């Protein structure tokens, strides 16, 4: 009978800790939810180079980064929505022209959603910083990779920015 009580107590402790982790892990995520409803627009963005090749990179060398430049060449403002990536080994962040930065976006399902809710005025440029961790998949994560970064917009012409990069990962 004591064994049953001990198992029950341990199970109750694990469930309690799990619930506490869920509660405190979700704390502060409400402010990441979309706060504005933006009207659709015909504005569009121009991306200098939507793809990049890191070439051969070593896990031992650590993270690599690349900046993509994006500009609003239209006559209308455009609103940036959610930013996310195709894999947990990749992070993305927007660097705005006023020298502020967005929160870092990651893979959907692995991180809380990152909503930008940032208006880009006509003529305004910004950069999207991609960071790739070649060691994220462990020692067997070698060989060619292809990753994507996505940014939702309110544009009917370009509802989603898609940026890509490639690399050949070695140990």
Please report the first level of CATH classification, the CATH class of the largest domain: Mainly Beta
What's the total count of β strands?
Answer: 9
Span from first to last CA?
53 Å
Mean pLDDT: 86
For the sheet with most strands, the description reads: 5 strands, mixed
Kindly identify the CATH topology of the largest domain.
Immunoglobulin-like
The helix/strand order is HEEEEEEEEE
Radius of gyration, in angstroms, nearest whole number: 21 Å
Biggest sheet: strands side by side, in what order?
2-9-8-4-6
Question: What is the percentage of strand-forming residues?
Answer: 35-45%
**Into which percent range does the helicity of residues fall?**
10-25%
Number of domains: 2
Uncertain stretches: 20-33
CATH architecture identity of the largest domain: Sandwich
Query: What's the helix count?
Result: 1
CATH superfamily of the largest domain: Immunoglobulins
Categorize the overall geometry. flat
Structural class: mainly beta
